[in-house]
């Protein structure tokens, strides 16, 4: 059962005076499109929208009350109102109140790359022995995280919550809402530099999860870059580093990576995940280390990791006839691009490799240099056919291309899909990767007939 509130509890959560109005709310909603009768509607306000414009619709859908922005201007709506200066902050306040009401252990997961994958792997490992609630998809910002908390079953033993950031202080605000017992940081790389400035800024922002988590909980970080475990140990002497290097605390004695699997052995126990690439191996190690720190048995971790499947288009392998598509178009930064390129060249040796690549967003001042670096990496790795979109068009145009390489520059995603037909033989490995805002899933849908 998800979060339920009385009117008095809402006022307590939001710091409002007791006006004597009674009421009960069966859930919390921010969207009238899926609002259930009896819900408390939180009318969020953004730069281009105002949830207050939908109060009448919320009332018609059966909302039992509404959190609205001051000044209140909705006298024609009969719903009980809870006026606040900032409805987004109020949503977080409701989530924090509910989190404190529940007895669940809370694990926070963040990182520049791999956080959703690690969250899913960890959820499965924990779920082999406990009742677990996890954030859906990548609901990890100042709206998504509170909604994930408010959707949690009050009887769950553990919550696994993903925390994202694009600006300084966001992780601190999110940890203030989730109040995590345990912290997991996957990796730190050049992502969201437009808001975070540089790699040092990203590192310190991610480390706010360690700063905000309970000192009595467990803390796990990946080994890359080396600055991550170094700074993490300065904050927490008991932090556990998971990785392949000799300096890692949670390190396999043996490992193997293929196109569709990653396997490793720790203290005589064999673990396997049905996804390929060294990046997935590293994600599995971090998840296994966190699960072990939370008391899950090796057998439980083994069962959980074996059940993992890629979420959405985060490195999923899709077959379209003899064409193998590496669908990785939900997240893109230089670090994740390097991992995807290495995976394609290593796991599919002997096959022609091609790519459809779109912009890495929010890189700020390093945007041009980062795209040029990735373009060079693609050429060095042996990609001989590339369809470039967004910032990659300029990056490739500034390079001297080898004679055996073809790069096309379509105007749109639909044009990119059409361009592939003339450049693919049909038995290649095709990497499709960009930031989510580029919407490259349209290319995959065109290749699979919508069955991807």
Question: What does this protein look like?
Answer:
With 452 residues, this protein is of the alpha/beta class. The chain folds into three domains: 5-86, Udp-n-acetylmuramoylalanyl-d-glutamate--2,6- Diaminopimelate Ligase, Chain: A, domain 1; 102-306, Mur-like, catalytic domain (UDP-N-acetylmuramoyl-L-alanine:D-glutamate ligase); 314-448, Mur ligase, C-terminal domain (Protein-Tyrosine Phosphatase, Chain A, Alpha-Beta Complex), CATH 3.90.190. It has helices at residues 7-14, 55-61, 87-101, 115-127, 144-150, 170-178, 193-196, 199-212, 227-235, 278-293, 298-306, 334-347, 367-381, 391-397, 413-423, 441-448, and strands spanning 5-6, 24-25, 27-29, 39-42, 65-69, 81-84, 105-110, 132-134, 158-162, 182-185, 219-222, 240-242, 254-257, 262-266, 269-273, 314-320, 323-328, 353-357, 383-388, 406-408, 429-433. The longest helix is centred in the middle third of the chain and has 16 residues, at 278-293.
Features:
452 residues; Udp-n-acetylmuramoylalanyl-d-glutamate--2,6- Diaminopimelate Ligase, Chain: A, domain 1; UDP-N-acetylmuramoyl-L-alanine:D-glutamate ligase; Protein-Tyrosine Phosphatase, Chain A; 6-stranded parallel sheet; 16 helices; 20% strand; globular
The major pleated sheet works out as: 6 strands, parallel
| N→C terminal distance | 33 Å
Structural class: alpha/beta
Number of strands: 21
| Percent helix range | 25-40%
Assign the CATH topology of the largest domain.
Answer: UDP-N-acetylmuramoyl-L-alanine:D-glutamate ligase
Radius of gyration: 23 Å
Low-confidence stretches: none
Spatial order of the strands forming the largest sheet: 8-9-7-10-11-12
Mean pLDDT: 94
Number of helices: 16
């Amino acid at each position: 059962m998800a979060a339920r509130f009385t009117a008095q509890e809402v006022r307590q959560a939001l710091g409002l005076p007791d006006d004597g109005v009674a009421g009960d709310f069966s859930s919390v909603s921010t969207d009238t499109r899926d609002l259930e009768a009896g819900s408390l509607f939180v009318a969020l306000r953004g730069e281009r929208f105002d949830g207050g414009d939908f109060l009448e619709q919320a009332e018609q859908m059966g909302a039992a009350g509404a959190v609205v922005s001051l000044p209140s201007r909705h006298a024609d709506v009969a719903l009980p109102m809870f006026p606040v200066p900032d409805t987004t902050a109020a949503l977080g306040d409701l989530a924090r109140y509910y989190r404190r009401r529940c007895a669940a252990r809370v694990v926070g997961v963040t990182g520049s790359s791999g956080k959703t994958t690690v969250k899913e792997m960890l959820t499965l490992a924990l779920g082999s022995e406990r009742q677990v609630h996890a954030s859906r998809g990548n609901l990890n910002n100042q709206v998504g995280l509170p909604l994930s908390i408010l959707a949690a079953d009050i009887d769950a033993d553990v919550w696994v919550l993903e925390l994202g950031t694009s600006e300084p202080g966001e992780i601190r605000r999110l940890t203030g809402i989730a109040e995590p017992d345990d912290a997991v940081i996957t990796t730190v790389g050049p992502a969201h530099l437009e808001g975070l400035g540089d790699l040092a800024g990203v590192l310190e922002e991610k480390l706010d999860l360690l700063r905000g988590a309970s000192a009595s909980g467990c803390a796990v970080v990946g080994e890359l870059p080396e600055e991550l475990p170094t700074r993490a140990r300065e904050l927490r002497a008991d932090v556990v580093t998971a990785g392949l290097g000799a300096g890692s605390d949670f390190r396999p004695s043996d490992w193997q990576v293929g196109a569709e699997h990653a396997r490793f052995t720790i203290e005589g126990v064999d673990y396997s995940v049905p996804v390929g690439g060294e990046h997935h191996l590293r994600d599995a190690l971090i998840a296994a280390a966190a699960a072990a720190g939370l008391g899950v048995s090796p057998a439980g971790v083994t069962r959980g990791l074996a059940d993992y499947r890629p979420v959405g288009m985060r490195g999923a392998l899709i077959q379209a006839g003899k064409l193998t598509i590496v669908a990785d178009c939900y997240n893109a930064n230089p670090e994740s691009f390097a991992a995807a390129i290495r995976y394609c060249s290593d796991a599919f040796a002997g096959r022609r490799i091609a790519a459809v690549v779109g912009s890495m967003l929010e890189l700020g001042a390093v945007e041009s240099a980062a795209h040029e670096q990735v373009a060079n990496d693609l050429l060095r790795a042996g990609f001989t056919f590339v369809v470039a979109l967004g910032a990659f068009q300029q990056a490739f145009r500034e390079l001297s291309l080898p004679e055996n390489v073809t790069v096309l520059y379509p105007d749109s995603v639909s044009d990119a899909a059409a361009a592939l037909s003339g450049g693919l033989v049909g038995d290649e490995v095709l990497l499709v990767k960009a930031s989510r805002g580029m919407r490259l899933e349209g290319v995959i849908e065109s290749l699979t007939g919508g069955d991807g």
